[in-house]
Amino acid sequence: MIGWLQSWLPAPASAHAAEFDRVLAAAHVEGLVVFASWLAVFVLILVRFRARRGAAPGTPAGAWPLVAIAAVVAGDVWLLAGSALPAWYRRATPPPAPANEVRVVAEQFAWNVHYPGPDGVFGRTNRAFVGAADPVGIDRRDPAAHDDFVLIGVLVVPEGRPTLVHLSSKDVIHGFTLATMRVKVDVTPGLPITTWFTPVTTGTWEVGCSQLCGLGHYRMRALFEVRSADAFRAFVADEVARLEPAP
Question: Is the domain of 74 the same as that of 176?
C-alpha cells in the first residue's frame, strides 16, 4: 500500500518522510476497511430487510450495530496509538545536536530567509532596520550579526544534518510547505513556531504556501535546495563575503 501511495506523492527526501508516509498509508487502509465493511452491511440490510408482499417490515436486531461501532473505534485507536501519535511525538521532540538553524519570515508574498552565518548565532533584529534590502531588520551593531545574511526566496540547507527552522509571519497566516520533506506548518502572526527535518538527499525543490494568503498567493514560492556539507559551507562563505562592512 505504501509503495502505491508514494507513487502519487513527491519522492521522500527527509529522514522522517517514510514514517509519515506509513501513517498516511495506515489511514487509507483503515478508511478502505471501514468503507468496505459498512458497504457490505448496507447491502445486507437492503437484501435481508427488503419489503415483501404480505410481510411486516423488519428491523435489524441484536448487538451487531454495537460491534460495528466498536470495530471503528478500535481501528481509530490502532491508527493513533500504533503509528500517528508516536510519529508526531518524535517530530515534537527537539532535533539532535548539532542542528543547522535558519529563520524564515513570511510576508505577502515572499519567504525571507535569515541565516546566522558561519558562527551559527543569530544577531539581533529590530524593525527600525527593516527595508527593501533587509526585510527582517538585522541590527549590524550587534557583534553576533556581523556574519548574518538574508536571502529573499532562497532556502539552502545541508544534507545529512538536522535543520531547525524558526518561523514567523509579518502579516497574515501562511503555510510553510516542503512536500519532499513532508513538512507543512501554519505560520501565524504573533505566534513564533519551529519545525525541523533532516534531509537525506541533495536536490532542488520549492517552498510552497498552503494557506490562501491574498491575491498574490500564487507568487508565494521560494527555491529550496539541499546541498552537501562542503557545498553548504561554501555557499555560506560566499554570501558572507558579499556583505558590506558594518558602519
Answer: no
Q: Is 196:102 a contact under the CB 8 Å cutoff?
A: no
> Helices 17-48 and 85-92 meet at what angle, rounded to 10?
160
- Which pTM was predicted? 0.82
Question: Which residues does residue 183 pair with via DSSP β-bridges, in sequence order?
Answer: 178
For 83, the 3-state DSSP assignment is helix
Side chain identity, residue 157 = V
Q: What is the mean pLDDT of residues 115-126?
A: 93
**Nearest-angstrom CA–CA distance, 185 and 169:** 12
What are the residues facing 225 on neighbouring strands? 156, 204
Question: Contact, 138 vs 125, CB < 8 A?
Answer: yes
List Cβ neighbours of 69 (8 Å cut-off, separation of 6 or more): none
> Residue 79: which domain range?
2-92
> CA-CA distance, 194 to 19, in Å (whole number)?
20
Give the CA count within 13 Å in the CB-facing half-sphere of 163. Answer: 29
Of residues 174 and 39, the one with the higher pLDDT is 174
Same domain, 82 and 134: no
The rounded mean pLDDT for the chain is 88
Q: Which of residues 36, 65, 92 is at a domain's end?
A: 92
**What beta strand segments (E) does 86-182 contain?**
100-107, 110-115, 149-152, 154-158, 163-169, 174-178
Contact 102, 168 (CB under 8 A): no
The total number of structural domains that make up the chain: 2
What's the distance, Cα to Cα, between the start and end of the chain in Å?
Answer: 60
Does residue 232 fall inside a structural domain? yes
Q: Is residue 247 domain-resident? A: no
Residues 198, 19: Cα–Cα separation, whole Å: 13
Residues 64, 176, single domain; the answer is no
